[in-house]
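Model it.
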Amino acid sequence: MAVAAIGAQAGLARAGAKSAHKPAGLPEIVQQAPELPDRESTSLKLREILSRPEFAADYGKPPDTSLLERLWEFLKKLFGPLGLVGWSPIGYVAVLLMTALVVFLLTKMIWEFSVHLRARATEADESEPPPPTVEAMLKAAAEAAARGDFRQAVRLRFNALVSSLGLPSVALRTNHQILRNLAQDCPPARSPMAELVACFEDAWYGAFPCGGTDYAMACSLATTVEQAVKGAEA
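Modeled.
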């Protein structure tokens, strides 16, 4: 009994201490546990959210349209930046057809013009006279020497020799290429050919006097080269 009385007094003392620390005039706050929604309301809320358009399986897919509708949309996008808005489909199609016609006519004109140019070039090639033969150049060289034009005579005798060698066209671009190719094919002809090249360049390109002696030396050197080439081919 004494112990129970002591415990009761201690409990009253603690309660009195708590009430002593509580500010006066404030209501007592009672904490309650939050109420959880039931399963049925939660399920209905989820179904409502999932039924929105953004959660549909075909969300973002373009609507099914016909070929004419897609063509119409393409025409509006094509002519919209040009300010051609509000036209009927027939107007857009007419503009497309006219544009295609203009492109076709321009292409046809360019093609016909290029064909005409190629035909003109072919006619020009056919109208050009064939290159002179070796015999014709030798005859022209003798005629030039006879009238005292030794510079032209040396040139014609040199060209006649080069034509008779039958070198490829790539090797005929410069005189030194001619000399190099001839030296590879016929080494004995290199020395007289080098002298003939120097004689021709002095006569034709240089400001040196050219007389009968120079023409005679050119003819002698050319004959030596021709003999060396024939000896190498034999």
